Amino acid sequence: SSASNDDISIGPGHGGTASSSSRSISISAASTPMVSNVTEAFENGNLNNDGRALPPMPSMSSQRSMVSQLPPRHRVVHSDGSSSTDGGDGGRVRNNNSNRNSNIINDNVNDNNKSSSRRTPNTTNNNNNNNSEPRTRTACTHSLISRIKISTTLILLILGLLLCVCTTVRYFIPLGPSSSKKRTSTTTNTHHTIPRNNNNNNNNNNSNNVQNTHEDQNEENITKLIEKQKSRRSKAEGLFDEMGRYVFEDYDALPTFSNFLPGVAGIYGKPVWSFYVNRGQGISSFGVKSKDFPIMEYHTANNAYQDTPLLGFRTFYQGHRGGVGWGKSDGESFLVEPFDPARTRFPQLYSSRNTQSSSSSSSKKNRKDGGKTKIPSSLVPGAEEAANYPTRSMFIGSNEMQIREVDPVHKIETNVSYYTLPEEDFGAFVRRTTIANIDDKDRPLHLSILDGLARIQPVGGKLNYQLKTIGRTLEGWMGVDEADHGTMPFFRMSTEPADSAAVVVEEAGHFCLSYIESDEKEFLPIVYDTSKVFGRDSSLTRPLGLFDTTVEDIVAGEQYGSAKTSSAFAAARDVIIHPGQSITITTFYGRANSIADVPVIARRIVQGGFARYKLSRARELVKQITADVETKTGNKLFDGMVQQMYLDNSLRGGVPVLLGEIDDRSQSLSADEDHRIKVYHLFSRIHGDLERDWNDFVIEPTFFSEGPGNFRDIAQNRRNDVIINPRIGSFNAKLFLTFIQMDGYNPLSVEAVVFTIDDKNECDRLAADAVGYADGHRADREALAGVLCSGSWRPGQLAEMIEKQNIFLMRTLPELIDNVAASAKTSPMAVSKDGYWADHWTYCMDLIESYLQIYPDREEKFLYDELLPYFYSSRVVRPRAQKYVLSRSYNGQWHHVRQLHPTFEDPSRLEQMRHYVNDSSGWYKTEAHYHHNKGGTIVESAPIAKLFLLATVKFATRDAYGMGIEYEGGKPGWNDAMNGLVGMLGSGMPESYELKVLLNYLKKAAGKYRRRVIVVPEELAALIGKITDALDELGDGEYIPPIQTEKTINEVPSALFQYWDTVATAREEYRSDMVSLSGRVKEYSSSNVIEIIDRWIRQVDLGIARAHIIGSHGFEGGDELLGITPTYFSFNVTKWERTGELNQLGHHLVNAMKMTVGKFPLFLEGVVRMMKTLDSEHATSIYNAVKKSGLRDEKLGMYTLSSSLVGQSYDMGRMMAFSPGWLENQSVWTHMSYKYYLELLRKGMYDDFFTEMETGMLPFIYDENYGRSLLECSSFIASSAFVDPTMRGQGFLPRLSGTTAEFLSMWVLMMVGPSPFFINDETGVLEMQLVPALPFWLFRHDPMAVDNKQHSIRFKLFSSIDVVYFLSQPRNLFGVAPEKYEIGLRDGSKIVVEGPTIPHHLAMNIRRVVFIQYIVAYF
After folding, report:
1. Is residue 461 pLDDT above 50, yes or no?
2. Is the distance from CB of 652 to CB of 685 less than 8 angstroms?
């Protein structure tokens, strides 16, 4: 849809079928055109095999609903809560309802958003045809009507201008204090009014007690608000093209940045990964699955910036205008390479004598000297030559990238676009090169073209490492086969290159297929012999082969592809392009399992209009994902960033879809209510890219594509899943609680859930239903039943096995997936690696809090009635006596005690897991990953018990001074660049603050549900008893440290040390008992739990108090005096005894006897976690202190991850290896900064939050410094501490980070409020309330609107319900509830609610989503 048309229609007749699902993604696998003349169908987005337009294909997660099948009805809600349906005059009432409901929202805003056309029209709108013109009207009648329309339009335009003038005048006359008049509404025959709800409850009090400081604004304040609104809008101008893509002019002259396409090919598509940079023709690498399987070799960012212009995509034109041919003396001949780096418009190339004639406005904008730098004339082009350099642009879309070059000398415009081929059973990367003749002298352009890859890699196993280390030797295996002479090369190695007795012959290969779109049936020849193009120029700088040889001659000659790295250039010969016309060369690069598959793929892609249609589908797929958070404010940049953040958040956490919706009932229930519904996440992957080159991403090239990710990453990025898609229910909270182990840790790598069906009869039934009951289908039935019952599988794997075994289905694959998902059970899947992060458990509470924002009425059932297993890992934490080692310092001058190799793989646990191996597959069964007791039964506990276990273990892991949580599992907390802190016996305050949050929640829950008991394993109860005994022995002493000076040595008091040693020993004994659990349990009453927790909270508070006294320590001074919480501590063992044993590296093992505390400079993480435990007043005090500290980067207006680390020991971790201001060393780490901003918003510090947004948050930061799209976040921004001033403020490590999760949490608070659903204290029932936090400058302003609708904001609630806020006067909406709601149902009826809260029956329907079309709230 056009980026300039940012209005949306929210009337009941415009919104598709009733949306009951969490996703609206088309899964059509084969809706592809057969003819080329399908422009109209492209716009509509769907074609059948005859080229005719079709309605959208239903998808597995489509918006199916039984409500959409019901006739529209007139609904009346009576005062007693009952309802009735008017059936006497249904047709007339339906018509009036639809018209009026449409006018509610659209009477002052035009619906220009063409993206709405992709939604299926609501069935209620089919009746709105009373006023439609009969098709039999004559031409004269049409002419008369047209004249009337024109006259009416002119009158309306004149009236509109007058209204604009009046409105403008209104804003510049003094306005008196605003009055809070109650809105009244009368009941009509189309809707019913619900009286204002005057119940006093906590939620109402909380929202209504927040004072709106802008209630009584004078003229000056209102003018400022309007001016700010205008300035925000103006910033977005020029940053987008007409398609809403972000634009970079002279992109290859800007500071370097890298990016990627999302790798989304649809549910029934096979994705490829791809990365691009702003150099050359953009794409720097692409391939399948991971960087080990490249089609174009993976290079890290620093190399990609240099290599892409030469080794990537290239285009060469041999051309002439007039004459008899290229190279002839009687015509104008040329050989030119578009996007040639030698003709990049670098600002430094323009001296003062030719600036005016050659510098573009964009070049001047990005120059530090304003275009006046003096450069020696020998190094710069002449004025005429510089003026003739081509202009280049880059257009970044959500699922595509395009570059453009306009060559003023040769009068050629070249556009190249890239996208991932969607919704096919083969994966491919698509390149479309469009060449236009822009000559204005009516001269035809004659071109011979080479367009494609300068270097392409073959299939040959895992190649990334080998290409970097034995690349020349590797070429010995390389070769090129041909599926069709000249046009279908097949790049593969003869065998996989390995020095092994087992030789693997390579059958698969990479293909390259190309054609001109006006002649799809004729494939272009492919030039794969690199020497034919570049001759002996091994740098690939110049196409020497084209200097004296035509493209025609190269194609006609022999090519050789053995023992060398090949190219893949499509060759178009003697193409004639007339002025104003263009041609498009489309090329597909992909992987096929065998050379015989290439002709089959070729027949598929030559169907008329295939490439254009697939481009439209690629765009649509991402739009369908981001439509969940569609937002329309007065700032287009903000709106675009919301959707970009949601996309990137989904790529790391996954897009949730619901499987198993097999009937009408299932489509209106949540996964908690219907066990048949299964939640499955798509498109996720670990965040690896050109700049995050340390991570090995995996994007499975299968249907239902997904990849593994780290526990913290996925847990954080799924935090808002249930808020945006309520039907997934408690899935994520239960999933991550299941990963909690008996030792309080969790596995690192989280994978997609797996499906199993244990009932053989059910497998047989499903197989028969899918393939048929006839005798001739017996083989297919048995094969499919065997697949279903052979063990665990995922939907994409199931589809692959069906394909490989050639099982013919009578049902569609989506139907089969839904049916088997409904019958299957799902199990979490994860893998432990080399250690345990200390902070991972903290994200479980985030997921629970999000769940309770939507389902507060299900808290008791969730906490006490569910049973979850404990994850079982073969990796365990060593006791202190096996990991405290005596080692020499880095300079060898002294000995010190370090904690090294804290975890190991326990052979006894591995042996236990081998009891659960699937005989047919050889893989572990799902049971292998769960903890069993002695009797072989899986140990399960209620979520409340697992939280109690977490609290117990973490309380028992506090450091020797009782301050932070020890980093004893081999890894630190969130800041994993503090890796050395583990060796320093370090601990973290962030985890202590999170422990306090957990303890407070457990106490609250136990007090709320006093009749319930908590049941825990006997072994955990023993640990609790030992902790109680140790606390009794410790007594009531507070052990407050002395006042700190520079010479203070904080030695751990002997009583605290003894307590620590006793509890740590008890913790280690508990872990040893876990090997063989007895199976017996112990019950704790609510009063017991509260008593225990109260005691623990007191100790945690004492530890926090000690931490504040000991404080932080830096070498610049001042920070330690501000009262800001420290984040980390280290512990130096001053006295020890040897155990007499050595570790595996020969170090002496020791027992600690005495310790002193070491401290560090300030880190922002400690502040963020602490603020979660504070009220607004104390949070404001901390905020003011942080602004004065070394955490504040005043020049950038942002906050750094740490204050200065100058003088700190390298022992603390790799962050000390980085330059200040770079990576984790005092840079602006956006994830933690956004966490900080989120806490400001949570504490109701609205003015402070929106002030910080102006300089510290996208998309409002200074774009010229940022260096990349303002819609896309970076992991860190080089701070003012960085030595190179030209790089300060620039963003690095793009997009996939926890920043997106924090921003979405902000978006929820800004648009919806902290607790949309709550339990009314008086009635005890669920109600709903919208309490946004929105500044006036973010509202859209329409001076033509009437009835207090001039200021509006629109957004999508629960991924389906359109919500509009109308603001009656210019002011900020900070924690204010509406005065009135208008709620439109999908049957066409409307309900008006007076007052700030929505009553129970409506709140329940809104949460189910399916029944509600829109909500309008008036403020």
Report:
1. yes
2. yes
Tokens 């009576």 label which residue? 78
Nearest in space to 565 (alpha carbons), one of 311, 938, 742 = 311
pTM for the predicted model, two decimal places: 0.85
Q: Is the separation of the CB atoms in 406 and 391 below 8 Å?
A: yes
Angle at 39 between CA 35 and CA 43, to 5 degrees: 125
pLDDT confidence of residue 1046: 77
Contact 291, 688 (CB under 8 A): yes
* pLDDT tens string 1047-1078: 788 999 999 999 999 999 999 999 998 888 99
Find, among 376, 341, 370, 340, the residue nearest to 355 by Cα.
370
Cα distances (Å, whole numbers) of residue 968 to 643, 899, 908, 984:
40, 8, 22, 10
Backbone angles phi, psi at 667, to 5 degrees: -85, 0
- How far is residue 207's CA from residue 236's CA, in Å, rounded to a whole number? 33
Q: CA 1401, CA 1018: separation in Å to the nearest integer?
A: 44
Of residues 668, 622, 617, 660, the one with CA closest to residue 64: 668
pLDDT, residue 230, reads 62
Return the HEC string of 111-169: CCCHHHHHCCCCHHHHHCCCCCCCCCCCHHHHHHHHHHHHHHHHHHHHHHHHHHHHHHH
- DSSP secondary structure, 299-338, as one string: --HHHHHHHHHHHSEEEEEEEEESSSSTT-TTSEEEEE-T
Nearest to 1336 by CA among 1368, 1380, 1377, 1382: 1368
pLDDT score, position 214: 40
Please give the distance of CA 923 from its chain centroid, rounded to a whole number.
31
* CA proximity to 488, closest of 511, 457, 463, 505: 511
How confident is the model over 1348-1358, as a mean pLDDT? 94
**Between helices 842-854 and 943-955, what is the axis angle to 10°?**
150
Mean pLDDT of the chain: 84
Q: For residue 152, what pLDDT band results from cuts at 50, 70 and 90?
A: low
Average confidence (pLDDT) over 115-141: 35
The answer to whether residue 363 scores a pLDDT higher than 90 is: no
Which pLDDT value is given to residue 355?
A: 43
CB 1182 within 8 A of CB 1174: yes
Do 684 and 709 contact (CB within 8 A), yes or no? Answer: yes
Cα(985)–Cα(1064) distance, integer angstroms: 13
pLDDT reading at 1168 higher than 60? yes
pLDDT tens per residue, range 1118-1129: 677 788 999 999
Three-state SS sequence of 1019-1077: HHHHHHHHHHHHHHHHCCCCCCCCCCCCCCCCECCHHHHHHHHHHHHHHHHHHHHHHHE
The pairs formed by 643-646 with CB atoms below 8 angstroms and a separation of 24 or more are: 643/398, 644/398, 644/1269, 644/1271, 644/1272, 645/1273, 645/1299, 645/1300, 645/1303, 645/1304, 645/1307, 646/1300, 646/1304
Instruction: Record the tokens describing residue 1339, joined without a space.
Output: 């509202």
Q: What is the mean pLDDT of residues 945-970?
A: 98
Contacts of 245 (CB under 8 A, 6+ apart): 3, 395, 396, 397, 400, 402
Question: What's the confidence (pLDDT) of residue 193?
Answer: 47
Cα dihedral value 37, 589, 621, 796, nearest 10: 120
CA distance 836 to 1071: 15
Whether 119 shows a pLDDT value over 50: the answer reads no
Q: Quick one: which of 430, 432, 434 has its CA closest to 406?
A: 434
Label the pairing between strands 1291-1294 and 678-682. unpaired
Give the pLDDT confidence score for residue 833 in this predicted structure.
Answer: 87
The CA distance from 1031 to 1026, in Å, is 9
1359-1398: b or e for each residue (b if 16 or more CB lie within 10 Å)?
bbbbbbbbbbbbbbbbbbbbbbbbbbbbbbbbbbbbbbbb
What are the strands, taking DSSP E only, across 669-732?
Answer: 678-682, 709-710
